[in-house]
């Protein structure tokens, strides 16, 4: 395999330096990172990105949901097409420095690679603009749902609804963006292709030893926010039969959701990652429990069956506990297939450069899933050690980072230099 | 029935005024009260109590755990005995204004009744001091365990351990007391009798129509803080079998605890009122769940069986979920019987004044339970509407408040004028 680093020796240290530079922001003592969406810690990372972009001749634009666009004019005057490349800088609480951040860093360094290639006349881009993008609130940690910035950009979520989202302290996303100075008013060019590199967050690449995976599709997901309303009462004198215990109801639902996924004949993952209780005081029966439940599956039928079974469980639990149970919100994410023509194109390019690769489906949602709704999109994975993510143990070795960037450069060159008509993608109206 | 209000007409408005005055502190919009232990809201209530005590010739003392003692010298020079009467001013989050507060208010107003009776030579007290007491942190809401101030005072909890208790923000009780200016250094007289009036927090008095209950005993309790440690991971790509989901483990424990109490042949209550999760983010498998579990029963064997069964459940759940489960702390509260001689004495006095009464056991712990370990103690209940408590719906009608005070005055007069040797209580050494 030829490495871009043979030709572009300066890139490797720049790539690792930039990644490490972001590793200064939101770092906790135990090695984890907390750069929650629109937080002061994420602002430091965003500011650093903007400085880097301006220092490298990008025009920096920020839209009303806080997405950052670094626009580089490639000088190709016969087109107004824009090639987007990026990911996100927000993290889970106590997560890692690779999830999202690596994709933004690689998008930045790829611009240097690209400019060099163009200057040497080794690439003739078919796009006018190369746009490094950092999407707002991908993680769904501080604000739910996930993929907020790319959802608003792609039209899946309205700006007004997104602005009104509140964190657990009641702060709206709009206010948080304004406080961090990322409530913009700019409009970037429309994307004609989107490329994203991300850590796999699973074990397949580590097993196969390949430097990169081409993601063919994303599993579907059903995300339900469920509210259990009981009655506050003293945990002492209140007779057991007179209690309406919202935590008991919520706990039964957590157990049932797990059983639904275990019993399913198809592959079905489920999880409750967040639960909020009130008053959450040891001597008071829990009055209110809110839980964030998800089902994920590569099969549509398994998902709809799961939701249907879960609703039956809710009725049963409501009957047993006397609590009022309701689904407060439901987000259904369809199974998404990435642009096939781009995948074929990338396969050819990777094959020609002797780069090994896997073809995978992603279980986790990514901004590329949202972008695929409005332009052909390509999602690449690089290995993550042990598949561990959303954890301080998240890790991708420098060698794997560089090998992944190598493969991305190959794919990028093939996509950006490809004739305009080669994509099978048709923009929906 | 004769009412003390016939003889002491000024007392009724004073009683209701003082109760309503406390109702100004920590009031929420929906009618609930939040006066968490050593909070700014509780400080307002405590300051008001101290002002009232000083205005009525009490010497105000504050001990190192923040207990307030209003000491009134009754002028009985042949003894140094002290009669304590009081309750607590802290509340649950969004609780009511009667739980604790009513007992403090009645203790204050009873002093006026007592002085009047002594001035008229209708009572010859066998105690030198009448001490109104407000105990710190009875509720176990902001700081756990409950009954903190009376536990330290009675020797069941060391001052150092109590000072080190932390709220959910990591603030120590010592620092919170210092911040609210209730970290004192005074030593009050030793109590020779303790009397507490409290709302029943159950439905029995409302059913019987009696104004007061004499509490014979307090149920035993086992309070366990249980920690489930799993592993943070992405709720998407992480295969279900590779997850160690601390919330799943915690939820199974909540369900099992309920089953243990339902299956028990004897009366056994159980509850998990508080659960803390980390990182508590929708897309991350819960790494850490901590739960506050309690069992309560009038039978010692039922309690020890319950804890033993629960430990078996912990082993099973740990095996199923791969989570590490441990009991972080355990507080065993024995069944407590209140001083029998005092109850007999009170029965005679109530009967003589034609006051109807019930004899009950209390399920909830009260400061009187702790005091009974060091002096004969008497706990009286007055009705609480629907038995509802720890809720904004907690309510005792003014008529019931006054009828309860009437009964308390009868009991107080009988206890305070009783010859010193009449109690069956022997102080343990």
From TrEMBL, chains A, B:
<dbReference type="InterPro" id="IPR002933">
    <property type="entry name" value="Peptidase_M20"/>
</dbReference>
<dbReference type="GO" id="GO:0016813">
    <property type="term" value="F:hydrolase activity, acting on carbon-nitrogen (but not peptide) bonds, in linear amidines"/>
</dbReference>
<comment type="similarity">
    <text>Belongs to the peptidase M20 family.</text>
</comment>
<feature type="binding site">
    <location>
        <position position="99"/>
    </location>
    <ligand>
        <name>Zn(2+) 2</name>
    </ligand>
</feature>
<dbReference type="InterPro" id="IPR036264">
    <property type="entry name" value="Bact_exopeptidase_dim_dom"/>
</dbReference>
<protein>
    <submittedName>
        <fullName>Zn-dependent hydrolase</fullName>
    </submittedName>
</protein>
<feature type="binding site">
    <location>
        <position position="99"/>
    </location>
    <ligand>
        <name>Zn(2+) 1</name>
    </ligand>
</feature>
<dbReference type="Pfam" id="PF01546">
    <property type="entry name" value="Peptidase_M20"/>
</dbReference>
<keyword id="KW-0862">Zinc</keyword>
<keyword id="KW-0378">Hydrolase</keyword>
<feature type="binding site">
    <location>
        <position position="88"/>
    </location>
    <ligand>
        <name>Zn(2+) 1</name>
    </ligand>
</feature>
<feature type="binding site">
    <location>
        <position position="390"/>
    </location>
    <ligand>
        <name>Zn(2+) 2</name>
    </ligand>
</feature>
<dbReference type="InterPro" id="IPR010158">
    <property type="entry name" value="Amidase_Cbmase"/>
</dbReference>
<dbReference type="GO" id="GO:0046872">
    <property type="term" value="F:metal ion binding"/>
</dbReference>
<keyword id="KW-0479">Metal-binding</keyword>
<feature type="binding site">
    <location>
        <position position="139"/>
    </location>
    <ligand>
        <name>Zn(2+) 2</name>
    </ligand>
</feature>
<feature type="binding site">
    <location>
        <position position="198"/>
    </location>
    <ligand>
        <name>Zn(2+) 1</name>
    </ligand>
</feature>
């Amino acid at each position: 395999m030829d490495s871009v680093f043979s030709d572009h020796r300066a890139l490797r240290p720049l790539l690792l330096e930039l990644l490490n530079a972001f590793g200064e922001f939101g770092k906790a003592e135990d090695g984890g990172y907390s750069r929650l969406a629109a937080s002061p810690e994420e602002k430091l990372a965003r500011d650093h990105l903007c400085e880097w972009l301006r220092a490298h001749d990008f025009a920096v634009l920020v839209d009303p949901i806080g997405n950052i666009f670094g626009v580089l004019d490639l000088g190709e005057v016969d087109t107004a097409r824009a090639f987007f490349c990026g990911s996100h800088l927000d993290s889970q609480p106590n997560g890692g420095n690779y999830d999202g951040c690596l994709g933004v860093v690689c998008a930045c360094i790829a611009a240097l690679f690209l400019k060099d290639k163009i200057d040497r006349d080794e690439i003739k881009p078919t796009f006018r603009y190369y746009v490094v993008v950092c999407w707002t609130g991908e993680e769904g940690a501080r604000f739910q749902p996930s993929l907020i910035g790319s959802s608003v950009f792609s039209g899946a979520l309205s700006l007004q609804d997104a602005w009104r989202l509140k964190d657990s302290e009641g702060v709206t996303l709009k206010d948080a963006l304004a406080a961090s100075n990322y409530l913009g008013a700019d409009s970037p060019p429309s994307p004609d292709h989107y490329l994203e590199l991300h850590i796999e967050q699973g074990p397949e690449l580590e097993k196969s030893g390949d430097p990169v995976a081409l993601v063919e599709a994303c599993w579907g997901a059903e995300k339900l926010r469920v509210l259990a309303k009981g009655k506050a009462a003293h945990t002492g004198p209140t007779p057991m039969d007179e209690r309406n215990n919202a935590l008991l109801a919520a706990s039964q639902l957590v157990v049932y959701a797990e059983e639904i996924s275990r019993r399913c004949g198809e592959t079905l993952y489920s999880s409750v990652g967040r639960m909020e209780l009130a008053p959450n005081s040891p001597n008071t029966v829990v009055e209110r429990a809110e839980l964030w439940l998800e089902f994920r599956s590569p099969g549509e039928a398994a998902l709809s069956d799961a939701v249907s079974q879960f609703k039956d469980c809710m009725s049963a639990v409501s009957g047993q506990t006397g609590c009022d149970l309701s689904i407060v919100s439901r987000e259904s994410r369809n199974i998404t297939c990435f642009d096939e023509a781009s995948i074929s194109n990338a396969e050819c390019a990777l094959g020609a450069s002797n780069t090994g690769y896997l073809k995978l489906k992603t279980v986790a949602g990514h901004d590329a899933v949202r972008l695929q709704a409005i332009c052909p999109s390509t999602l690449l994975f690089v290995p993550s050690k042990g598949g561990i993510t959303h954890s301080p143990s998240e890790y991708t070795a420098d060698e794997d980072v560089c090998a992944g960037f190598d493969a991305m450069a190959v794919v990028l060159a093939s996509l950006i230099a490809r004739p305009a008509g080669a994509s099978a993608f048709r923009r929906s109206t």
